[in-house]
Design goal:
The complex is a heterodimer of chains A (263) and B (363). Chain A is mainly α. Helix content of chain A is 81%, strand content 0%. Chain A has helices spanning 6-32, 35-41, 45-77, 81-96, 99-110, 117-122, 131-155, 159-167, 172-183, 185-201, 204-209, 220-230, 232-262. In chain A, 36% of the residues are buried. Chain B has 363 residues and is α+β, with helices and mostly antiparallel strands. In chain B, 25% of the residues lie in helices and 34% in strands. In chain B, the strands form four sheets. A six-stranded mixed sheet of chain B has the order 7-8-9-3-10-11, sandwiched between helices. Chain B has a five-stranded antiparallel sheet with strand order 2-1-4-5-6, covered by helices on one side. Classes of the chains: A mainly alpha (263), B alpha+beta (363). The A-B interface holds A 158, 160-161, 163-171, 174, 178-179, 182-183, 185, 263 and B 46-48, 73-75, 77, 79-81, 83, 85, 87, 89-92, 100-101, 104-105, 134, 148-149, 152.
Chain lengths: 263, 363
């Protein structure tokens, strides 16, 4: 038997440390709460309202993310050279922007005194501090990530399949609709779930742009923040609830993704 | 008049594709080394890439004409293409793949069925119709891809190395089958290959492409008789020695680039750069230089001796490399020479052919 090499031990050690760094807080959060506390949460109308707003805003944002993001992702996956790098930088901009700054920027664009404020007021649309603002914040933060990941997914589609479709008489749109999308459908489904999960966790952008109004713009993350100041036990339970939702979504993504890679 | 005729210019990374060719109904094999531009030509014809200049005519239709600014989209050209890796749609079953083109034309399920069934039957794959394309064997995938292409009734068929992805056994099965299917169809068919057996099989019309140009056209037999380039000679297995014809005190003599001199029928050549070809089976091998002092002789080392059926192919390295082929019995009579041994290779002047290099390659 050979002794394990020093480097192997080093890798194992750092892995162990990282593992505990991830698992320890999760464990602490679950220990701070209990199934009974979670059940009690689900009887609380305020919490249910926040849960509803969380789900609703993410579900409303999802089609918009696909509508804006999918063509962009496909275009990006078919771009080469300088144009592509420029587009990627444009996409990375919201990704590196601190979420709070994103909220502020959105306010300055769509707020009453913002760049488009006058136009929007003229047609009688008020965005800040409404559900629309929550949706817009999710759209702003999540879409670039969605586009980035989906473009990788679409890039994996063999171009020959599209060529073959064209030669069989398909227009480029038909080839996209009848060949490209069906081929990556599993991956896209996983991306949809990923986008939902990201929307659930959004905090900074929403609190600045949409406010923290219970029953109107307060999502679970915001409710947790509010509860933390008044009722820490409630905050722990909310935290555990959000964590469980995330774990469920992660499991769903995992179930969908590997089979896509095989084809 | 269903011929394809084209004249194309297109820049490739290392050279320009520049050719003019006509393809009548029936199979024309497009032969050439890797990277000669064969696949690029197919993509240009299909409209997947755009040429810099030229025209493509299919029957009476212009598919592309730079001067008239005609450039049909691929889906308007009515060209069937069989891709090297087939490009079957992984999300559809066999029936879905074959019916794809008809579905796009708005045909309903019954009408599609009515058109597809006889085709599947003809290709012998009707039992596969509900199978996933992932579960098919190489040969079956090939047939499905061909069925998918034929279902749209193309007016030109482009086959990009249709048998390259198959194992040898499947290839031998598919080739006669493919020939049978294609022979029945009265449309121009361009079949890309770099396989000698394939070229010999579809031997009637072969166009050889090198560096973006058509360097020779003819039957397999014609290629064998007078290979126009080193690639073609090597491809059909003919010795090809380049050199120069010069006058040596009034009589012409061929001096190879390697420095050996040979005699050949010189009646058709001019002094200047030329190449000499000689069949491997016209070369005799000897341990000792035979009597009569033959003019065309090389003393060289055996590089390898490869048995091919009842024949043995020996490569001899001297100033020039020479391949000789002899019967197994002849090989035994010679004492089964092994690599490293030295032999004399001799051939008669009238068994060699000699041609000048022309400035412009024949087209």
């Amino acid at each position: 038997m050979r002794r394990p090499r020093l480097f192997t031990l080093l890798l194992a050690g750092s892995g162990l440390l990282l593992g505990s760094l991830i698992l320890l807080p999760i464990l602490a959060l679950l220990l701070a709460s209990s199934p009974a506390a979670l059940l009690r949460l689900l009887g609380d109308p305020g919490v249910l309202m926040a849960l509803w707003i969380t789900l609703l805003s993410s579900l409303l944002a999802l089609p918009l993310i696909f509508l804006l993001g999918l063509p962009a992702a496909y275009g990006l996956s078919r771009c080469r050279g300088r144009l592509r790098r420029a587009l990627e930088i444009l996409l990375e901009l919201p990704m590196v922007m601190p979420p709070v700054v994103a909220g502020l920027a959105l306010l300055l664009a769509f707020g009453r005194r913002g760049l488009l404020g006058g136009v929007l007021a003229h047609i009688g649309v008020r965005i800040p501090f409404t559900l629309m603002a929550v949706v817009l914040a999710i759209l702003f933060v999540v879409t670039p990530f969605f586009v980035r990941r989906s473009s990788v997914l679409l890039e994996g589609v063999d171009r020959k399949l599209e060529d073959a479709a064209l030669l069989l008489g398909a227009s480029p749109l038909q080839s996209f609709w009848h060949v490209v999308l069906p081929v990556v459908r599993r991956g896209l489904f996983a991306e949809a779930i990923m986008a939902m999960a990201q929307g659930f966790g959004l905090f900074g952008a929403i609190i600045l742009f949409a406010g923290n109004l219970p029953g109107r713009t307060q999502t679970l993350s915001l409710a947790l923040y509010t509860a933390f100041e008044s009722d820490p036990q409630q905050a722990f339970a909310l935290g555990a609830l959000l964590l469980l939702i995330s774990l469920l979504l992660l499991a769903a993504v995992r179930v969908l993704q590997p089979r896509e890679e095989r084809t | 008049m269903k011929d394809l005729s084209c004249r194309l210019n297109y820049r490739l990374p290392h050279f320009a594709l520049d050719l003019e060719m006509a393809v009548p109904p029936g199979i024309t094999v497009l032969l050439g080394p890797n990277g000669a531009g064969k696949s690029s030509l197919l993509r240009l014809l299909a409209g997947l890439n755009r040429p810099a200049a030229g025209e493509i005519m299919l029957g009476e239709r212009y598919l592309y004409d730079a001067r008239q600014r005609i450039d049909l989209f691929p889906e308007q050209r009515r060209i069937g293409m069989l891709f090297q890796d087939l490009a079957l749609f992984p999300h559809l079953d066999v029936g879905g793949n074959v019916g794809f083109g008809l579905k796009l034309r708005g045909l309903d399920r019954n009408e599609r069925q009515r058109r597809i069934d006889p085709l599947l039957e003809k290709l012998g794959i009707e039992r596969l119709v509900r199978r996933s394309v992932a579960d098919l064997s190489g040969g079956e995938r090939q047939k499905v891809a061909l069925a998918r292409t034929l279902a749209t009734e193309p007016q030109l068929l482009l086959l990009d190395e249709p048998t390259a992805a198959l194992d040898p056994a499947a290839r031998h099965e598919i080739r006669p089958w493919l020939l049978g299917i294609l022979a029945e169809m009265d449309i121009p068919t361009l079949l890309v290959s770099h396989d000698i057996e394939e070229a010999a099989f579809f031997r009637k019309r072969i166009a050889v492409m090198e560096q973006g140009r058509i360097v020779q056209k003819g039957s397999f037999h014609q290629l064998l008789r007078a290979p126009a380039s080193r690639f073609i000679a090597r491809f059909v297995g003919v010795n090809y020695i380049s050199g120069e014809v010069s006058m040596d005190s009034g009589t012409p003599v061929f001096r190879s680039t390697g420095g050996a001199t040979f005699l050949a029928p010189f009646d058709r050549v001019m002094p200047g750069s030329a190449y000499l070809t000689v069949y491997p089976w016209d070369i005799a091998l000897h341990r000792q230089l035979p009597e009569g002092c033959p003019k065309n002789r090389i003393h060289g080392q055996v590089l390898d001796a490869i048995p091919l059926g009842d024949r043995v192919r020996l490569t001899l390295a001297a100033k020039d490399k020479l391949v000789a082929e002899l019967s197994s019995r002849g090989y035994q009579a010679l004492g089964e020479p092994q690599p490293g041994e030295r032999l004399w290779a001799v051939f008669k002047a009238r068994e060699a052919r000699i041609e000048n290099y022309s400035g412009v390659l024949p087209c």
